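User: Please run a holo structure prediction.
Assistant: Happy to. Please share the sequence and the ligand.
User: Here you go; the ligand is FE2/S2 (inorganic) cluster.
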Amino acid sequence: MWDYSDKVKEHFFNPKNAGAVVDANATGEVGSISCGDALRLTLKVDDDSEVILEAGFQTFGCGSAIASSSVLTEIIKGMTLDEAMKVTNQDIADHLEGLPPEKMHCSVMGREALHAAIADYRGEEWKDDHEEGALICKCFAIDAVMIEEMVWANKLRTVEDVTNFTKAGGGCASCHEDIEAILEKVLAEKGETFDPTAAPVEAPAKIAAVKAPLTNLQRIKKIEEVLESLRPALMADGGDVELVEVIGNTAYVNMTGACNGCQMAAMTIAGIQQRLMEVMGEFIKVVPATEMAKLVNIGVA
Amino acid sequence: MSDIYLDNNATTKVDPVVVDAMIPYFLEQYGNPSSIHKFADGVARGLKHARQQVQALIGCEHDSEIIFTSCGTESNSTALLSAIKAQPNKKEIITTTVEHPAILSLCEYLEKDGYTIHRMPVDKAGRLNLESYKKLLSDQVAIVSVMWANNETGTIFPVAEMAEMANAAGVMFHTDAVQAVGKIPMMLQDTKIDMLSLSGHKLHAPKGIGVLYLRRGTRYRPLLRGGHQERGRRAGTENSASIVGLGKACELALEFIEYENTKVKAMRDRLERGITEQIPHCFVTGDMYNRLPNTTDIAFEYIEGESILMLLNKAGIAASSGSACTSGSLEPSHVMRAMDIPYTAAHGTIRFSFSRYNTMSEVDEVLKVMPGIVATLRKLSPYWDGNGPVADPEKAFAPTYA
Ligand SMILES: Cc1ncc(COP(=O)(O)O)c(C=O)c1O
Ligand code: FES
């Protein structure tokens, strides 16, 4: 069985805050029964201070899903909603003293339930922003959807390209056959054929990763720098991208030309987001500027 | 209470008698069976004897129809690849949706090379439709490969009948009998089965030893070429100690086959009845009336298999699950999906598989803890409310996909 840490076992065998909070005023439900993981998080939030007074979970899932839910409720109790928004899935995994790569999605589910619950409290609609596929690279916990998106977004052609852009395949190398299968599939969809000896795509521009937390100004500059480096590729496809606003960790962009509204827009945005996160070493969410208008309307921005 | 092992379809304990039979082949008769000196002169005899012991268990006509391999997976690969190599003009393979990955992954791979794979579906009880099978048989088919018994549910397929049908259509027939051999009686010489795979570690022999039965006269191409071992049909120096162990294990399996189908079956039945009577919202999967005597696979609704296994493990009980989370994938087992078991149940299936080493008091022990384990997890489940599932569970809790 899995090599679970003692912390995971502790939270699984003696879960904290199991069950629904009785007089909850925020609920987040995420997961999918087909994938075997689903979580309902209920919160009681103090309306004046926005402090989370109570948190409860109900989880259908494996040992680490239950442990992630349990530890999440412990982490967020006593936090304000703004503080809670900053909890990442890595925080959840860290509190559990680590999770096996196959199980990292359990911590992601925890964070998403939290975001969904906070959105519910604030009367916003929460949309999940990522899709998860079969785990391909166990060394770096990278799934098929992520690799496909990167292959599309960056016109990757070889396993080496995929490794340069996503890290997948850069460890033990046992996932190379699966990565080749993805390349074959995506390239076939684009009407190209997979050639393992193709010349490498130019490696992602090496913009030194920044360690200390960024100031807002630094962040905006960095984001602009990265977007600038991506524009030539987009323009080659008849599209373009423009930075409109940065609020916290969210970058609002205008997609123009061929990218705007085309079926590739979502894919491109995911690709841009991925690149931003890699270069900046922090969580960045990329959202079409059209979404910002909606936020203004409900008085968040 | 010492630990209880109910995961015998995954692998079994090596019988101490088998270990005893093997020891001399490590310490004294360790010579290469091809050599001519006293360190080797007993080995050939040991191998010959083992071949006859396997022959007796599966009831084949000649001991030379037994080819020793390294495992069930190798036997399966050898069978399929041999059939397509020997008949290069035939580009179709018939199999089922519920085979072991040892067959399914290979078929997927061959599909990429242009082979057409017919994967026969099963009904909700895991049964095949022989009418549709008949329609698939043609001179385009290189081989039919259908498991004798399913590793998850224990469901037995009518392989003897299916082999007759294939034979009448001039098509080769292979069966993955890894789970069936030693648990149900068989007499291959009375069938039209051309090839059969078995694996030592499922019947109290060591891991890493298997057999491909190859009916005399079946066209064959070896997977491993090299020395003359196994009459040139599987090169590589014989794993003599394990072969001798497998022979002994087959002899014991034959001796215990009645016990398996009476005493072992009685333990399985008691556990199954006890669980389904005591615990609401659970059901047995597979074909209740055509099953291995040692296997029961029970779906516990609204909870997830891995968490059940973790609590069982804490209680000292080993079983296994068709849950996705035990394998690190997102989908529950392909066998549960093939039977169209709803997701709320498919993720919570637990397989209990017995052997002659189990006892009735172990069954009672499991029956004591199982209801509590299920209740504990249901208390955490968003699909469960107090004493029963929430009304219309799939609607009442319909989370956003994340
Ligand atoms: C039906 C079936 N076929 C094949 C195998 C593989 O056998 P081995 O582990 O000897 O390769 C197994 C074992 O898990 C099995 O249950
Ligand atoms: S699994 Fe991808 S490099 Fe190891």
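Confidence is low (pLDDT under 50) at residues 205-211, 296-301 of chain A.
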